[in-house]
């Protein structure tokens, strides 16, 4: 792909963001859901590192974690290596919420895919490794994560 194609691809990715919002169940913001997915992949992680991964400020992540903690989806604890730092971990309720969201999104996507031609379905399947490679440039720990 040439850099001249980057604007078209950027536009397609923006439209995919709209599709993701359409597929995702209500209840959590996309940032909150992405944070749960990151915690699922990473295990307990420092709040500062979580903010950096999600691309939000530390105060914004602190507020989000407070809301998620109030609903029982995450828990905070002291970092055993540095008692001044806070670790954030996904709870079993958080794992269940994430699994439910993924199941709903998968069901909705399957319904939409049924309306596409076999060639378009195959083209989407063939594009997945390229999307995974692109995503790993942002977060190397991501291995085809279904979050």
UniProtKB/TrEMBL annotation:
<protein>
    <submittedName>
        <fullName>DNA-binding MarR family transcriptional regulator</fullName>
    </submittedName>
</protein>
<feature type="domain" description="HTH marR-type">
    <location>
        <begin position="1"/>
        <end position="139"/>
    </location>
</feature>
<dbReference type="Pfam" id="PF01047">
    <property type="entry name" value="MarR"/>
</dbReference>
<dbReference type="InterPro" id="IPR052526">
    <property type="entry name" value="HTH-type_Bedaq_tolerance"/>
</dbReference>
<dbReference type="InterPro" id="IPR036390">
    <property type="entry name" value="WH_DNA-bd_sf"/>
</dbReference>
<keyword id="KW-0238">DNA-binding</keyword>
<dbReference type="InterPro" id="IPR000835">
    <property type="entry name" value="HTH_MarR-typ"/>
</dbReference>
<dbReference type="InterPro" id="IPR036388">
    <property type="entry name" value="WH-like_DNA-bd_sf"/>
</dbReference>
<dbReference type="GO" id="GO:0003677">
    <property type="term" value="F:DNA binding"/>
</dbReference>
<dbReference type="GO" id="GO:0003700">
    <property type="term" value="F:DNA-binding transcription factor activity"/>
</dbReference>
